[in-house]
Every structure is written in C-alpha cells, then in structure tokens.
Model the fold of this input.
Amino acid sequence: MSYPKKRVKTAAPITELVNLRAARIAAGMSQTKAGALIGKNQSHYAKIERGEVSLSAHEALRLCLRFELSIKALLVTAAQLPKSE
Done:
C-alpha cells in the first residue's frame, strides 16, 4: 500500500535571498525591471528572491554588478542572518 507524500510547509523559505531584495528596493527598482536585467519576467524574479528557483552564475553576476553587491553578500540567506531579539 502506498501513501501520498505529505508536504511540509515552513514559515519562510530557508534560501530566501534577503540582500538581493534589499538591494533592489534600495535601488528603487521593481521586480519587473530587475527580472528584465536577467531576461526573466516578474513572476520568475520574485521566485528567485524567495529562493524557490535557482539563480544561474551569469544571472547572479549581472545582478551583483547592477546592485553593487559581492557574490558573498548576494548569497546570504535568511537562515544566516543574526536572530533579532
């Protein structure tokens, strides 16, 4: 007998790229325009920020250059941020 797999929901994606979102907002850029920088639509770009889809090395480099981020800073995830009290 086979049982259906249960999906586990988390409060927030572990791989959310928080610095990417912050840099985009600081630059006053919409997700639509940021997505256009890497040839993606707004929906796909939003999934990148939320960590739901992968970001290629080429896409990461283009975004880092535009937002003046290092690759290391780009790849900081929500799980790596210090806990606020």
In short: Helices lie at 18-26, 31-37, 42-50, 57-67, 71-74. The domain at 18-80 is CATH 1.10.260.40 (434 Repressor (Amino-terminal Domain)). The first helix runs from residue 18 to 26.
